[in-house]
Amino acid sequence: MSARWIDDPILRVDHLTMRFGGLTAVNDVSFSAGRGDVTALIGPNGAGKTTLFNCLTGFYKPTSGRIAFSSGRLDDARIEKLTRSARKHDGEIFLLERMADHEIARQARLARTFQNIRLFPGMSALENLMIAQGRELSRAAFFSIAGLLGLPAWRRAEQAAVDQATAWLERIGLRHRANDPAGSLPYGDQRRLEIARAMCLRPTLLCLDEPAAGLNAAESHGLAELLRAIRDEGETSILLIEHDMSVVMRISDHVVVLDYGQKIADGAPREVREDPAVIAAYLGVEDPDEPAVEAVLAGNAPT
Amino acid sequence: MARLEKISSALREAALATLIVAGLGFPIIAYRAEPDFNNALALLGRWPLFFQFCLAAFALRFALAFWRGGAAKAPIRERLWRSPRWLGPAALIALVVYPLAVVGLLGPQAALKWVDTYGVQILIYVLLGWGLNITVGLAGLLDLGYAAFYAVGAYAYALLAPATGLGFWALLPVCGLLAAFWGFCIGFPILRLRGDYLAIVTLAFAEIVRIVLTNWDVVTHGEAGLFGFPGLNFFGLPFIPGPRGFAAHAGLPFAGVHKLIFLYYLVLILALAANLVSLRLRRLPLGRAWEALREDEIACRALGLDTANIKLTAFALGAFFAGVAGCLFALRQGFVSPSAFTFSESALILAIVVLGGGGSQLGVAVAAVFLVGASEALREITFLKSVFGEGFDPAQYRMLLVGLAMVAMMNLRPRGLVSTREPTIKLPAGKIAAETAS
Amino acid sequence: MLAFRRGESGGAMEVFLQQLINGVTLGSIYGLIAIGYTMVYGIIGMVNFAHGDVFMLSAFIALLILLLLTQMLGLGAAPAFIVAMGASMALTALWNYAIERVAYRRLRGSFRLAPLISAIGMSTFLANFVTVTQGPNNKSIPPMWDQVITLTSGGAYDVTLSYRQILIVAVTGVLLAAFWFVVQKTPLGRAQRACEQDAKMAALLGVDVNRTVALTFVIGAALAAVAGSLYLLQYGVVKSTDGFVPGVKAFTAAVLGGIGSLPGAVLGGLLIGLIETLWGQYFSSDYKDVAAFSVLAVTLIFMPSGLMGRPDVEKV
């Protein structure tokens, strides 16, 4: 079976480099993520994973390299043609390194979450989800005019948005907290709410930055279930950074390993787990027979 | 025994506080420098006042330490006060009846001050407060130069009314739009700035505007300001005595208060319209985006919100209200000069928003009534003059108290700007209960 | 001021030289105030909006003590001024200590604009407190040390350097050297730098953060009091609204030099002093404040890390 990230990628990163002054955080990294896959980006602390994420989502402008993304097919010839032009996208293929963060979310439909949760803490859970549907709602509000007048088209759009938000709250088990400030929710609920908020953008690619960080075993199990369900619905591919190997190994189809800003391995979870370079990077030891390493990469690490 | 210890520790605390207050007050309260008849400065001792301050500090600190047990502070409980349902309509009726009631009770002459100072002036500040509330309270963009937009509105009317011959109905939106345009222009270069830097730049821009107004004599007449521009009329009927005036047409004896009552209702209607627009906008994507921006700008960008547009609309709409208020100010005063648009004016409007608890429309209105109305009321109390001497002007203390109130507000309710917030959209109780039941 | 007026009819080079001297004098004063802004910003990331008013207050304290000493105790002008400056440093430091305690301490870690709003409130309070207690009018004292050294003569116009200008620049220089020593070599300086980097970590490692911040305010106020006293000496006049504009200009100096950087604050102060005097001379004295405010806006918009500051990377 050949891999989807080669046959039908949704995202292709070519020779991406990001420097901050003298520090090279991401160094000539290339990889692809397959359509419909869960792709995990792993690596030790400081490997450049979050920086890479910030380049993908437009929060940083990469120093050099290309990030091609498509909701249709990523056709090589079309990517080259687009690269030669000065345009950001041709309607289907997007060159993310040319786009601003909000354009990436709005036009290319890449949604993301943050390592340290970034909800709107003073606003209710429902409002958080409503804000994520701003694109559809602003169109219906027609420069706020239809909204100010309370025209029926606007009311219908608002009701549809509330319905979608309610469905997501239901799905993450937070419907009873819909009217409470997001900041008052327990930590695990906030993580799930942030994912639900990103999903309200109806993204083609969902980028999650350490979604299981700080969750207990039961919560991270639930999270894995949720992510797998999202993937299985087929509308959204997932790219995640994760430290919790039990989550990575359970749900990912493809693992990319970074160390010191460089890609050191790329493949199916089973292959990566046995890669000596990965093992060395993870524990800083040369001896791949070390049982602890095996345990970490198998996802049974004592935490 | 324990009681004695408590007293002695409270005494120590109080003595320390007294010493600090004595140090703070030593030359600045104990002496006042005033020029004598040779125009050289001479010192006037005010030791009794100084000792009163020390005594007050001692008593207060002692009481605090004694009753609250040393320096331990009781946690400040934040209690949400929900305004009852009837309050809005009741306030509205009171506002509509107010000028007529005052005229009825006091007669047209004595009512002048009540309609003008306590009516029109306060309502203009309410309008300003609601406008700035959009920028500061909702979008979380600290605008320290709000008075500049107010000035743009006032000068726009004062300059355009004689130049174009247009009436105030036509010029009201023009003043608002011009101010909004300025808000846009000032907002544009500072989009990328962090909160505190943004605040300082708005201050710098506002000061530049004021200096230009002060020195561009050819157009603005400098410090002297502009006056003699056309004032209010009642749909074409001027408020003048004689057969062509409003009073004659309405079959009333002429009274100066007619014009003010008309202005009062004009300001009231505009303020209510502004309120309605703000309240509605909060439920729309734009208004929610403002609040989201205040909460977390980076998250906004990750959700595809164009923060530049959101900031610009917040600036421009806040400025629009200020421009309209400026136009009304020019109509009320009959003259405009740069001294009305200093930083302390911006600070006063900011204080109205901050003390009003940000997001809350009613809070802002109450704060405006309190800050503007109370100091005017203090001026009325002749009793104070007999205590503090003839030269005593309580208005001097207004800004002093405004400053203290801002400090107190930030310290006692640091998240005061959002803590009483009601969600703009709620899932009905039935829908929530459905799940808890199942 | 007088030299400035005479300058209008003088030779071009002499005028320029004279304005350079005046600009450096003014710039020294701005630099001293700017240090207060930059230190507080460095340590708790707050724009201490009330600092300009603390400066104004210090000038009033110096004025009152100066009058007290000369009129009631009959001291000579020179010793009286030195005592007044010292007393003003101590009392202003006490004021700023109290201000930090009452208005800012509890707001560390509050939402980001709370300290700034509180500082604006404090600024409003201080300006009006002085207006209420001392009256709104100008307070002027007779000129002191106004003998001058004539640097160039014979031309159309004499370039002069007054004794008090020498004093101002010298005092500023000496204080800055002493201050630099404190920040670089003493435990206090180390604690300050630790709090700048990471207040929570510093606290865990046994640095008393509250004490360090309080001392920062105290030092900032003492330097502002020196500036206030020298301002009174140089211009001979002060009024209760004098805190705002010099405060904003000194803040401009701090931003221009790179906020958080001490040498930057001094450099920025000198630049602002020069820009202001030269602008006033060659363009328009009515619009000289516009120059400073424009520099502020332009610096913040186009190079927010200033000349000597570290760039600020947005944390996502």
TrEMBL record, chain A:
Domain ABC transporter residue range list: 11-285
Keyword Protein biosynthesis (UniProt): no
GO biological process, one term: D-alanine transmembrane transport
Tagged with keyword Nucleotide-binding: yes
GO cellular component term, pick one: plasma membrane
Matches recorded under SUPFAM superfamilies: P-loop containing nucleoside triphosphate hydrolases
Keywords annotated in UniProt: Amino-acid transport, ATP-binding, Nucleotide-binding, Transport
Molecular function as annotated in GO: ATP binding; ATP hydrolysis activity; L-isoleucine transmembrane transporter activity; L-phenylalanine transmembrane transporter activity; L-valine transmembrane transporter activity
Pfam families: ABC_tran (PF00005), BCA_ABC_TP_C (PF12399)
InterPro entries in UniProt: AAA+_ATPase, ABC_AA/LPS_Transport, ABC_transporter-like_ATP-bd, BCA_ABC_TP_C, P-loop_NTPase
Family from the record: Belongs to the ABC transporter superfamily.
Protein's name according to its UniProt entry: Amino acid/amide ABC transporter ATP-binding protein 1, HAAT family
Source organism per UniProt: Rhodoblastus acidophilus (Rhodopseudomonas acidophila)
Automatic annotation (TrEMBL), chain B:
Keyword Cell membrane: yes
Signal peptide annotation: none
Domain High-affinity branched-chain amino acid transport system permease LivHM N-terminal positions: 10-98
Chief location of this protein within or outside the cell: membrane
Highest taxon of source: Bacteria
GO CC annotation terms, alphabetical: plasma membrane
TM segment ranges: 48-67, 87-106, 118-136, 141-160, 166-190, 197-216, 261-281, 312-335, 347-375
Keywords assigned: Cell membrane, Membrane, Transmembrane, Transmembrane helix
Presence of keyword Transmembrane helix: yes
GO molecular function, one term: branched-chain amino acid transmembrane transporter activity
Pfam families: BPD_transp_2 (PF02653), DUF3382 (PF11862)
Membrane topology: Multi-pass membrane protein
Subcellular locations according to the entry: Cell membrane
Protein name: Branched-chain amino acid transport system permease protein
Species this protein is from: Rhodoblastus acidophilus
Lineage: Bacteria, Pseudomonadati, Pseudomonadota, Alphaproteobacteria, Hyphomicrobiales
TrEMBL record, chain C:
Annotated signal peptide: none
Key word Nuclease present: no
Bilayer topology: Multi-pass membrane protein
Entry's Gene Ontology BP terms: D-alanine transmembrane transport; L-alanine transport; L-isoleucine import across plasma membrane
Any one annotated GO CC term: plasma membrane
PANTHER family listed in its UniProt record: BRANCHED-CHAIN AMINO ACID TRANSPORT SYSTEM PERMEASE PROTEIN LIVH, HIGH-AFFINITY BRANCHED-CHAIN AMINO ACID TRANSPORT SYSTEM PERMEASE PROTEIN LIVH
Protein name as annotated: Branched-chain amino acid transport system permease protein
Annotated organism of origin: Rhodoblastus acidophilus
